[in-house]
From TrEMBL:
Region spans: Disordered: 29-49
Transmembrane parts of this sequence: 82-103
Keywords per UniProt: Membrane, Transmembrane, Transmembrane helix
Protein name (database record): Ig-like domain-containing protein
Domain of life: Bacteria
Length: 212
């Protein structure tokens, strides 16, 4: 069988049958057959970033201007500060004085001490009345003292009261004790402060009568 002649020319590429046909724009069907939505278009590329240039010939961004310093508050004159200080000290002193005055006025009466003595002893006299004096020292406030006398030869006495005025720092309380008959005796007199605070004091009372 005779051989076919060999053709050394290259063969052309295969022809695309769709190259010569206008392809329709792709569509997406939603709902009914008459509703069409064109395919989404590609998003726009982002704007290019801001360009910064460096080098000679490029103007330099000016530095921000410095802020103006805040104006200092005006200082008060020295004499005004001195007057303000003196006024504050005077007000404080006035408050202290008023407080002490009110405290003294409202403070209740207090007994600081008490003592008992016989200023004029009976001596050798017969049938005599002796005064037994109790001296009470207070804080000078007004109020009422409650006290009671005790005699060694009798039952306790009744509770008595004494009104004390404002500023009266010394109060005198007197017990009159009568002695009679012939003989010698040494008795004891004692006072008991009941109010405003319990306090006691006492002394001896001597009686000597020698009749012939």
């Amino acid at each position: 069988m005779p051989e076919e002649p060999f053709d050394g020319r290259p063969m052309p590429p295969p022809v695309d049958p769709w190259a010569t046909i206008d392809r329709p724009v792709p569509t997406v069907y939603l709902g009914g057959p008459d509703t069409t939505v064109p395919a989404a278009r590609p998003a726009k590329p982002p704007p290019p970033a801001e360009e910064y240039r460096f080098g000679p010939g490029v103007p330099v961004t000016p530095a921000p201007a410095p802020a103006w310093p805040a104006a200092a508050p005006p200082r008060r004159p020295v004499w005004r500060r001195v007057v303000s200080l003196l006024s504050s000290l005077l007000t404080l002193a006035l408050v202290i004085v008023v407080g002490l005055y009110l405290w003294q006025r409202l403070r209740p009466i207090e007994v600081e001490s008490v003592s008992v003595a016989v200023p004029k002893p009976a001596g050798t006299r017969c049938d005599v009345t002796v005064d037994v004096i109790a001296t009470v020292h207070t804080n000078g406030r007004s109020g009422v003292l409650e006290y009671q006398w005790f005699r060694s030869d009798a039952a306790p006495g009744a509770v008595l009261t004494e009104q004390v005025g404002s500023g009266q720092r010394v109060v005198t309380l007197t017990l009159k004790w009568a002695f009679s008959g012939v003989g010698t005796t040494i008795e004891t007199a004692k006072i008991n402060i009941v109010k405003p605070s319990p306090l006691q004091a006492g002394t001896q009372v001597a009686y000597r009568c020698r009749r012939r």
